[in-house]
UniProtKB/TrEMBL annotation:
Residues annotated as domain Trafficking protein particle complex subunit 13 N-terminal: 1-153
GO CC, one annotated term: TRAPPIII protein complex
Span of domain Trafficking protein particle complex subunit 13 middle: 157-280
Transmembrane segments: none
Pfam families: TRAPPC13_C, TRAPPC13_M, TRAPPC13_N
Highest taxon above the source species: Eukaryota
Family classification: Belongs to the TRAPPC13 family.
Top-level taxonomy: Eukaryota, Metazoa, Chordata, Craniata, Vertebrata
Quaternary state and interactors: Part of the multisubunit TRAPP (transport protein particle) complex.
Name assigned to this protein: Trafficking protein particle complex subunit 13
Amino acid sequence: VMRLTKPTLFTNIPVTCEERDLPGNLFNQLMKDDPSTVKGAETLMLGEMLTLPQNFGNIFLGETFSSYISVHNDSNQVVKDILVKADLQTSSQRLNLSASSAAVAELKPDCCIDDVIHHEVKEIGTHILVCAVSYTTQTGEKMYFRKFFKFQVLKPLDVKTKFYNAETDEVFLEAQIQNITTSPMFMEKVSLEPSMMYNVAELNTVDTAGESESTFGARTYLQPMDTRQYLYCLKPKQEFAEKAGVIKGVTVIGKLDIVWKTNLGERGRLQTSQLQRMAPGYGDVRLSLETIPDTVNLEEPFDITCKITNCSERTMDLVLEMCNTNSIHWCGVSGRQLGKLHPSSSLHLALTLLSSVQGLQSVSGLRLTDTFLKRTYEYDDIAQVCVVSSEIKQ
């Protein structure tokens, strides 16, 4: 059994000396005549030739394990009904990797049966390749033997995630990916496959002259022990917008799909399990701002649009009260009836207010009262708005 891996570049140890030393120019000439060295750069350790792997090497989760299996008849007799079976034993399952389960009719002396197996490694830890051979001798005796080949599957990447909940229903995901192998990686693709409730926008590219370029540069190599941050924005789909705003407990976001290449093009792929975040609690009634201007004039009315959502499991009869603060003054009738609001439903409310103080002011002073339970919900510091003098704005 021999593992099939990509070859590596040949390395040599250059031996040089000064011309006034005893060997003179002999060592330099030998390096120039060596076919494995790079012409014009003979003192570099890395050559131009490829060399076959001299050992098993490391195999990482997500890579494809390939092996060459050869059964050779060392005797001087013809054997019959040869059956070669290759199984891979992991900590949780046993997989059959044999390309064919049919028996070979006969195998003559000095002949062999060859097979190449492939398997995408999906578990870390100890793996045992079990090769079993059964055959029948000329006397009709059935023979059987097995060989075991043990190897370890290592973890190539360390993935950490952070969630940021925006004031709206948007969710920002930061994925920190660290290369914990001993060789550099070419990050071919890092994408987020969202759950059915979300649309995702990738925030890892910038538009330059009408073309999208990666924020990590044209060659996205990740050196050993280096970490890179990827950012994604998830927004609920229109049909799930209401449900996404009131969902309780754990919310499924999606899963990361990572594809990389190492050395001479060995490909690896990892897909994380479903990423989950704790949804923010909104209480019985949620109030959010749909529209608000960034900058307004001093002592001039401006409009905002609020969205009120019933997050409870009962119907509410709401009354809106508007309380003025030292800087924010509401325009309109306070104490008006908003009507009944059923569970998981929402309504939009247009309000007008003005500010009597310049600077960054906080919109506060809204009160919602449920007449059924006589319960009042207070909403302060809903948003901030920059108040400037009308002369400055002009």
